[in-house]
Amino acid sequence: MDIATYLNAVTALFVIIDPVGAALVFHALVPAGDARHRFAMAAKATLISTLLLIIFGNYGGPLMSRLGISIDALRISGGLLLFFTAFNMITKDFEVSQSTERKDVSVFPLSIPMLAGPGSLTLAILLFSRADALPAQLSVLTAILSITLLTFVLMLLSKYVKLVIGRTGDEILRRFLGVILAALAIQFIADGIAGMGF
């Protein structure tokens, strides 16, 4: 396994998926009293997101190529999309009220668009496109599994995450991660422009 690739992928995925923020949203959307329902929703959302990230990450690039879209164009457009996401993370307020209704929220909004949204799916394609050798590809795959597993665990422990982080801590963390994501987005754009020979 390529450690440098793994660490780069884990950092990028952690920033865009934000497992801590996802756990806080999960805590608000799923009633706290039903442990079995909470486990089912967390497991289903994590499984769907993991499959989407791996499948789209591996086959999204070839699909784009068939549509006549180069990987460098995808890097630029993906970077712009990630930058827009980062801008919203930094500047916009996000509020979710506590739900008491027992319903299936695993696909929407937990899996799509929160965990496997446009930003993370684009990032998965970009990460796999950079991984030319098998060790690098395995590193990206392991990074996806690591982040989704961490998200699953934090969802199950979301009651305690909320107590530790609180609203202020979540605001600080989300905006800090937004700054890192913005820098990552600019790097993708710069790589795409360089790849096109400008």
Automatic annotation (TrEMBL):
Biological source species: Aestuariirhabdus litorea
Q: Pfam families of this UniProt entry? A: MarC
Which InterPro entries does UniProt cross-reference here?
Answer: Multi_antbiot-R_MarC (IPR002771)
What's this protein's name?
A: UPF0056 membrane protein
| UniProt family annotation | Belongs to the UPF0056 (MarC) family.
Heme among the record's keywords? no
* Localization (cell): Cell membrane
Keywords of the record: Cell membrane, Membrane, Transmembrane, Transmembrane helix
* Nuclease listed as a keyword: no
Query: An example Gene Ontology cellular component term from the record?
Result: plasma membrane
Where, by residue number, does the polypeptide cross the bilayer?
A: 6-30, 42-61, 67-87, 107-128, 140-160, 172-190
